[in-house]
């Protein structure tokens, strides 16, 4: 029995929800739901209505996810697909499996790009992909690949292990650099330019995202401690 | 009275000395001097002979600079130009002004590139430029600009302040990352890719260079301490 979605709702119109809306609206009948942000040219619905779509994309901060899941759970249709896009995966996966009824299909995902890095399109960007319940993930993954995305199957725990390094250290280093004040530009080497570019790419990320990456990833603290211990050891040894 | 150099010697054939030889040999009569490294196709001379050139480029580790300066000082001709290329500038500037006779012109420089970053040519690369004694620096800077380099006038102290951030932090971060083991690649974000590229660019630098950058720069320890304190504060605050 093939999954042929016609409607999709996006819950949460932060930076990523807006990016998703822009890319998905040519393909499906789209509704959006956000208590604060207005999308002038898309049908705005409440949570109960958003839950009626074939695919429900949760683009809310992790701190709001349990509340949203409880609100939509009674309204979701059998066979509907719920997909989250948070920057950690262990916690959202557990919440979705615990709080959504068994007749709902579940995918935990993490698009490894944002409005800044995908300004010139989706081609070549990646999305971490954790199918948790149901078979619709195959068809949706094929759709995402057709948009030029590289879909990377993984588990929530492996994702969080990798991201503790990838995002945890990038954000830690970027924030630390930005607190040093203006960086030297005239004298920059190529390698430092890359470092400064990496820092600039993440410095506009929201405080909620930073908290998710640095606190809500169960492996982040361990990786951070090892990195800082290595740096302190190098500093002490010279 | 115009400075028209015809001969140039390079003392020290490490990674940068070899790079300099490759780019300078079409322009001047070149000799090289190194106790270990052989340059098969360039005249190899001893320190006393190297000191007879119109321009003497010191491409030796900082730890060997005082010894080399004492060895060449009695042989340098009036009006000759001595240029160092070390990655810090306060210490070499002081050594050159203290140990070279007053009839010798002196420039402290720091090419902000190496064999890896200049693999495709010099165009667009930068060199920090501190004229310390004599007027020959103008003609030499004009020559370097004609090779496509951006010549950045600065003082030894300002250079070391900027480089404590630019090189000090890049190397500290790169070495710390490399000690964490293999980095995640499949899940890398664009910003993390830039961070990993920055680390890869400096990880083959010699231990002597690392020591110079992290220990011999008078501002390095202060910058490093501030960076690590900011990072520890962010880590503790999440």
From TrEMBL, chains A, B:
**Species this chain originates from:** Paracoccus haematequi
Sorted keywords for this record are: Oxidoreductase
Q: Which residues form the Prephenate/arogenate dehydrogenase domain?
A: 6-238
Q: Provide the GO biological process annotations.
A: tyrosine biosynthetic process
Q: Name one Pfam family in it.
A: PDH_N
Chain's gene name: tyrA_2
Q: Does the keyword Oxidoreductase apply?
A: yes
Protein name per UniProt: T-protein
Instruction: Give the molecular function GO annotations.
Output: NAD+ binding; prephenate dehydrogenase (NAD+) activity; prephenate dehydrogenase (NADP+) activity
SUPFAM superfamilies according to UniProt? 6-phosphogluconate dehydrogenase C-terminal domain-like, NAD(P)-binding Rossmann-fold domains
Which residues, if any, are the signal sequence? none
């Amino acid at each position: 029995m093939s999954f042929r979605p016609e409607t999709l709702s996006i819950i949460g119109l932060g930076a990523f929800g807006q990016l998703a809306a822009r890319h998905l609206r040519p393909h499906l009948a789209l509704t959006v739901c956000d208590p604060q942000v207005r999308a002038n040219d898309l049908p705005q619905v409440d949570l109960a209505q958003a839950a009626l779509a074939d695919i429900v994309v949760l683009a809310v901060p992790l701190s709001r996810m349990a509340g949203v899941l409880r609100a939509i759970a009674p309204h979701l249709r059998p066979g509907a697909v719920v997909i989250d896009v948070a920057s950690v995966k262990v916690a959202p996966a557990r919440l979705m499996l615990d709080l959504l009824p068994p007749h709902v299909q579940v995918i935990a995902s993490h698009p490894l790009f944002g409005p800044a890095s995908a300004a010139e399109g989706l081609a070549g960007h990646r999305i971490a992909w954790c199918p948790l319940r149901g078979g619709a993930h195959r068809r949706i993954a094929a759709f995402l690949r057709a948009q030029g995305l590289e879909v990377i199957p993984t588990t929530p725990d492996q994702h969080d292990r990798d991201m503790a390094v990838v995002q945890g250290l990038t954000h830690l280093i970027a924030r630390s650099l930005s607190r040093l004040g203006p960086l030297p530009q005239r004298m920059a080497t190529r390698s430092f330019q890359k470092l400064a570019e990496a820092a600039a790419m993440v410095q506009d990320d929201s405080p909620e995202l930073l908290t998710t990456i640095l606190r809500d990833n169960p492996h982040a603290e361990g990786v951070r401690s090892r990195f800082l211990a290595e740096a302190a050891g190098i500093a002490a040894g010279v």
